[in-house]
Amino acid sequence: MRIVQVTAFGGPEVLVVGRAAEPVAGAGQVVVGVSVVDVLSLETQLRTGWGTEFFGQKPPYVPGGGVGGRVVSVGEGVDPGWVGRDVIAMTGDGGYAERVVVPLEALVPVPDELGVREATALLQIGPAALSLAGAAEVKPGERVLVTAAAGGLGTLLVQLAHAVGAHVIATARGGRKLDLARELGAEIVVDYSEPGWLERVREAAGGGRLPSVAGGAGVDVVFDGAGGRIGQDSFEVTARGGRFFTYGVPGGSSAQIDPGKAERRGVSVHGMEQVQFAPEKGRRLAGLALSEAAAGRIRPVIGQTFPLDRAADAHAAIEARDTVGKTLLLV
């Protein structure tokens, strides 16, 4: 079968198409015929050698932590009724392949009302969005800032905040991304690649353009998917008593917030723990996200797809910040 390997740490060109033996399901396992692979921004960073002290990848390896497809065979102890069912599953690594072996307990069935592409797009961002929204407890009328609002996770958070009646300020880079955020429910959009962007957010949040629940200046909730300098700057417009969530690393790291400053302003700061789950919780939240999408309450934005053989092009597009929503590989 075809696979795509990271042959060495480096640029997108180190992603090379190769061959591997067909996988065989062991006891308690199934083989999934992969039709869709979820591509994460994190995978593009790991490919360069970033984060090895935490994640442990060592070339050659097959990336890809999440896939969607159809069960083609089952191992000992698994109900043969799974064969032919459309599923999504976390794989750890190894997803850039035509077939993968996963444990039965990793499977999340795809509802009949949802396509495998849409379900795969929600596999990793759906649980993260529901976790963040639940922890933030956004209330009607609150002012919510979403950075990297046109990314996969950002698009869901804009939708969820808008759905509960919050006033959403979305920041992103470029007109195409800002138009998408506005389409999904953002009332105000700001390009954070332009000088003075933070002042425009501050004006929107504290200058009367958006009503306030608490009456103070700033935004009540920040969902920071950008990280780095943008995330740190976004903290500055968080209102006293607000909630700040930082989970994005496109800027090289999540936003580093001074705990003393946060305490003095009464701002609760939450980090990556909000988007990292034990497998059982991740599956439960993924199932809930699929149910929400099947009912039409959230919509995954699939901005671009690439054939498996062009995984390097997918990575290059993400690194060029030329993508919106989710990027998927089609097998």
- Count, helices: 10
Oligomer: single chain
Q: Which percent bin holds the helix content? A: 25-40%
Order of helices and strands: EEEHHEEEEHEHEHEHEHEHEHEHE
Note down, in words, how this protein is organized.
This protein is of the alpha/beta class and 331 residues long. The protein has two domains: 2-109 and 301-330, Alpha-Beta Complex (Quinone Oxidoreductase, Chain A, domain 1), CATH 3.90.180; 125-275, Rossmann fold. It contains ten helices and 15 strands. Strands 3, 4, 5, 6, 7, 14 and 15 form a seven-stranded mixed sheet that branches. Helix 7 (228-235) links the parallel strand 11 (219-224) and strand 12 (238-246). The longest helix is centred in the middle third of the chain and has 21 residues, at 116-136.
